[in-house]
Amino acid sequence: MAGPPTDRAALGALTAEIVACRRCPRLVEWRERVAQERVARFRDETYWGRPVPGFGDPDARILVLGLAPAAHGGNRTGRVFTGDASGDFLWPALHRAGLADRAVSRRADDGLTLTDVYIAAAVRCAPPANKPTIVERDTCAPFLVREMALLTSVRVVLALGAFGWDAGLRALAALGHLPAGGAKPRFGHGAEARLGPYVLVGSYHPSQQNTFTGRLTPPMFDAVVARAVALAQAS
Questions:
Q1: H-helix or E-strand containing 7?
Q2: CATH number for the domain that contains residue 50
Q3: Domain membership flag for residue 85
Q4: Could you tell me if residue 47 is left (phi over 0), alpha (psi between -120 and 50 degrees) or otherwise beta?
Q5: d(CA 166, CA 158)
Q6: Distance between CA 92 and CA 25 in Å, rounded?
Q7: pLDDT per residue over 74-100, tens digit each?
Q8: What average pLDDT does the structure give for the chain?
């Protein structure tokens, strides 16, 4: 059963703390340099250039967990999966599932509304080559733990990619929820692991590397989103 309504003031305070974070020198330098130099197609835009907080329904039963903001996506727009190719794949799927009120999101101020889903990244700053270091990963991890503790209605974590899967496992372990038998659940598309009151569901990440090659197709992604919805409704 879902928990009490989320403390929105506490979640807002955590969001402000995430946005102000400067703990990882390499990531700070990179995200700000990208925001300053920009790319030709966005040369007239003002980049966000800061850590990207979570976004969505504070009373969601589903948490979608990605890797990190894209350099010219979330790092530009200030919202996860907004203005990049991964978002162009994600939002239509959430819309088809009834979790998003529109199938396209290119700007943070476009009025997109999510229902029963909250989206966050395991690492909140855009990393060079989309690869955070282990130290950067671990420095950022407490934000997710605190976020999940505040999102009291979440019962399903839909992890996008192996990085998101591992981040979800670590966050749930920090909250006292370990896998039965002690063996680490293995990531895979459609994999599931029960940890206390939570179910961790795995999906290939909707990156161009997966979607352009056909490793992840819309029907495949729709299936795991539908499974997450069914598990949430049964909680």
A1: none
A2: 3.40.470.10
A3: yes
A4: beta
A5: 12
A6: 35
A7: 999 999 999 999 999 999 999 999 999
A8: 96
DSSP one-letter code for 183 = P
In this structure, the number of other CB atoms found within 10 A of the CB of residue 188 comes to 12
Residue 41 within any structural domain of the chain: yes
Residue 2 lies in a domain: no
Q: In sequence order, what are the residues at sequence separation of 6 or more whose Cβ sits closer than 8 angstroms to the Cβ of residue 215?
A: 204, 209
Residue 191: give the domain boundaries.
8-234
Collect all residues with Cβ–Cβ distance below 8 Å to 47 and sequence separation of at least 6: 34, 35, 36, 38, 75, 76
| Whether 101 contacts 113, CB under 8 Å | yes
> Has residue 92 been placed in a domain?
yes
User: Residue 68, exposed/middle/buried by CB under 10 A (0-12, 13-18, 19+)?
Assistant: buried
Q: What is the pLDDT of residues 115-126, one digit of tens each?
A: 999 999 999 999
- Joined together, the tokens standing for residue 198 give 């939570």
Give me the number of domains the chain comprises.
1
Other CB atoms within 10 Å distance of the CB of residue 196 = 13
d(C-alpha 106, C-alpha 19), whole Å: 20
Sheet with strand 62-66: strands edge to edge: 55-56, 117-121, 62-66, 156-160, 198-203, 192-195
Lookup: tokens for 113: 């509304």
User: Hey, which bits of 50-208 come out as E strands?
Assistant: 55-56, 62-66, 117-121, 156-160, 192-195, 198-203
